[in-house]
Design a protein that fits this description.
The chain has 293 residues and is α/β, with parallel strands linked by helices. It has helices spanning 20-28, 71-85, 100-113, 129-140, 159-168, 187-202, 235-242, 247-264, 284-289; strands at 6-13, 46-52, 55-61, 89-94, 116-121, 147-150, 212-219, 224-232, 268-276. It binds guanosine-5'-diphosphate and magnesium ion.
Length: 293
């Protein structure tokens, strides 16, 4: 073994729902970035640190690349694109169902940033190895990738080999973060995200996209106390999130509390409130107030 210590930033880019956050969680063996079957779950850049004896890989999970005029969506696209510039290497993620045109849109941003790109075909558990191979060969033609491979982020297949490829392409450098640190996100942020994930999973249609969560109080008492507000855009959405006799809100609360207790490693008293903040996702000011800045 050489004495070389490699370190650097790797941004994970791709369209919504290809499995970027699932990949990061698999690498870190921790539920850091929330994932759901609905597109556009991730709204912020999430930093996840992979520590090994010979390397530190700092992953940046991003919202998916997609275009839209809404202020929140513009915010998410900006986050995704600016993150490519911050990185040593771009991990371009796709899945077997994405077309070349769709991947091309993502690659445009990578090319503009002039970053070395590594192609990752995720979700190969859903297709046979032959189909995966053909798909990969097809997509490789789109760009001069430094490497390409197929993985399954849910099953963990191909992940270790991919990590080796990434480490080999990072520059020699210091450990930027302490070895026991896996993210720079504060606990408050992670708790907020877990609540948002439950809203995403337990509500439908436009509701997930109309919701922002804000932690108003966070007390590290025994049990910990968390008071959180679920912001919706309209009164009709508030009724849906609360549900008949509060049943939906209770369901969201219970599911969130379990996850937060696992994260914090202690009992939690979680209180949820639902508030109408009219059209927050369209207003730059409300976005700021709700932490999307
Ligand atoms: N079968 C399968 N599903 C996956 C895989 N990776 C992610 N998914 C699913 O794809 C959906 C979107 O994943 P997510 O990580 O939120 O995608 P993101 O928007 O790119 O961050 C979720 O339902 C995941 O469970 C995989 O390797 N195989
Ligand atoms: Mg995501």
């Amino acid at each position: 073994m050489s004495d070389r210590f490699a370190s650097g930033y790797v941004t994970i880019v791709g369209r919504p729902n290809v499995g970027k956050s699932t990949f990061l969680n698999q690498v870190l063996d921790t539920k850091l970035s929330i994932t759901t079957s609905k597109p556009q779950t991730t709204r912020d850049r999430i930093l996840g640190i992979f520590n090994a004896p010979e390397a530190q890989v700092i992953f940046l999970d991003t919202p998916g690349i997609h275009s839209s005029d809404k202020a929140l969506n513009r915010y998410m696209l900006d986050k995704a694109v600016s993150t490519i510039h911050d990185a040593d290497l771009a991990l371009v993620m796709t899945d077997p169902f994405e077309t070349s045109d769709q991947l091309g849109e993502v690659l445009d941003y990578v090319k503009q940033a002039g970053r070395a790109a590594l192609l990752v075909l995720n979700k190969v558990d859903l297709v046979g190895p032959e189909a995966a191979k053909r798909k990969l060969e097809d997509l490789e033609k789109l760009h001069d990738f430094v490497h390409s491979c197929a993985v399954s982020s849910t099953k963990g297949d191909g992940i270790e080999a991919l990590l080796d490829e990434i480490k080999a392409r990072l520059p020699e450098g210091p450990r930027y973060f302490p070895e026991d640190m896996i993210t720079d996100a504060p606990l408050r942020f992670l708790c907020k995200e877990l609540i948002r994930e439950k809203v995403f999973t337990l509500t439908h249609k436009e509701i997930p996209y109309a919701v922002a969560v804000e932690i108003e109080e966070f007390r590290e008492t025994e049990p910990a106390y968390i008071g959180a507000v679920i912001h919706v855009e309209r009164a009709s959405q508030k009724i849906i999130v609360i549900g008949s006799r509060g049943s939906k809100l209770k369901e969201i609360g219970t599911a969130s509390r379990h996850e937060i207790e696992r994260l914090l490693g202690c009992k939690v008293y979680l209180e949820l409130f639902v508030r109408v903040t009219k059209d927050w996702s369209k207003s730059p000011k409300s976005l700021k107030d709700l932490g999307y800045r």
